[in-house]
Amino acid sequence: MTGEVLIKSFPIERLVNIGLRGSTLLAKFALLFLLAYFLDPADIALYGLLVATVAYALYGLGFDFYTYSTRELLGTDPDQWARLVRDQSAFFFLTYLVVLPALTIIFVVGLLPWSVAPWFFVLIVLEHLAQELNRLLVAMSRQLYASIVLFLRSGLWALVVAALFLLLPSIRSLEFVLTTWGIGVATACSVGILAILKLDRDCLSDSIDWRWVRRGVKVALPFLLATLAVRGLFTVDRYWVEALAGADVLAAYVLFAGVANAVNAFLNAGVFVFLYPKIIQAFKRRDSGSFRSGMISLFRQTLVVSLFLSIAAALLIHPVLFFLDKDVYGEHVEILYILLFAIFVYGLSMVPHYGLYAMAEDKAIIVSHVASFIVFVLLSGLVVRVLPIYGVPLALCGSFLFLLAHKSLAYMKMKKKQPWMQKEKQLLETTVV
What we know:
By secondary structure, the chain is mainly alpha-helical. It has 2 domains: about 5-210, no CATH class; about 230-425, no CATH class. The protein is built from 17 helices and no strands. The protein has helices spanning about 1-10, 10-40, 40-60, 65-75, 80-100, 105-110, 115-140, 145-165, 175-195, 210-245, 245-285, 290-325, 325-330, 335-360, 360-385, 390-415, 420-430. The longest helix is centred in the middle third of the chain and has 39 residues, at about 245-285. The two termini are about 35 Å apart. The relative contact order is 0.11. It comes from Halomonas cerina.
């Protein structure tokens, strides 16, 4: 009987999903360490800046429209999903026309060299399409398809690069890495589109609902500003480290940030994507029991997984650094410890974040993100004067602690304002008494 309960609570599909997503993270780990082993620190630094800038610029292309469309999709009958996807795609076409030309400023001001400009624009379009397809598949509870898209987007191509770097010395270059990255993401987009094409398309006879799009823009715009603020922490930090300490230290920072961010990536892949749609649906149904149990599960799994992975990363990094045998990484391993703590706190902050998101309390999320960016800038400006190398990661810790505290207080406050939750709570207390 116990075995049956265990299988039901942790189905095979979820094991396959976690396996695919776990393989993706291992592939990214392997790629990162092999790049650090075979390429010069200057190439690692450039790769880190390019990855961070592409990831940040994605939000401009997507406009954070998913923050609106996901809730809309979860509250709409499945036979209307194709129409919502089409209308969202029409909006993205417009953002491409505006945002892509504007992004040339990155190269005009010298943040990135013109030599990587073609790759930047190809990768940002493909990455955005794959990201939005993945989000749609998650919201539609098609987790297996979402995991496959993620594996193709971030895992398989990284494994290919890692294997070929080991076997063929002649292809060990940043150019080859970027080429394979592009092919991998293009393949992921193809699989995601095939999955979306299986939707019921009878609803596409209706014309594009531009009023729905405009309403979404109004909802998403404040979210975009907030996201640009909080995600800016994961982009500005690299440029700031380069300015303060140079390319060699930036290479170490990129390596250790990749390790730390893998903890957050696994939380997204193994915890958040499975629980937050159910939390949103429970809130929409006003099912306080399911909402409460969902939030408790989210907290427990986030705490256990992030703590375990952080400790494991802190211990396992030492044999890896011995293998790399490059002083620039071993000399600055303390950066990893600080970043792991920062990501651990950031992961915990996502628990009240999803609670607020389910409640559609967008203002609280926006304020916390913008304020945390301000805290980061102020702390960085103060700490780097004393600790130039460690000031930026320490400022991240302070900023994420503020983020956790602000979101937690906002969540508890907003939860008390839900009368149907309080009513059931009082009923339970009366029953117990």
